[in-house]
Design goal:
Helix content is 17%, strand content 31%. It has 148 residues and is α+β, with helices and mostly antiparallel strands. Strands 5-6-1-2-3-4-7-8 form an 8-stranded mixed β-sheet.
Amino acid sequence: MNARPWFAAFAVALAWTHAMAQNPRAASPTDQNATPPSVTVLGSREVQGILGGEVRSTGNEAMGRIADVLVDGEGKPRAAIIDFGGFLGVGSRKIAVAWDALRFVPEASKRYSIALELSREQVKAAPEYKQGEPIVVLGPSGTLERIP
């Protein structure tokens, strides 16, 4: 039996108990607005963190790693920033690719593989992402989209 899901549930419950101890008003049964938060336990095989995850093309070429995820005002992912090219971080560029250009593919040897539906040449030709400047996002069809 895998102890990780039980440990995760225990850690969430412990954190919630600690938060309630820090803010006794939130735990007060007389406060009608104080509803306890919902708790969801996710199995380690159901989800995965993607920051730093390796991205490969559909032709299995190494494309880089996910450096960041950009979300819109509703919290929906719009683009992934991929640290593309270079060697050990030297000479690499950050490229914004549309979220729908990524595919999360289960693999037997790894937990998940992140596939990008763009070729290395398409990504190489894309403008570099620079924080604080207008963002040009490379879409799955190879078209460029500007996010204000």
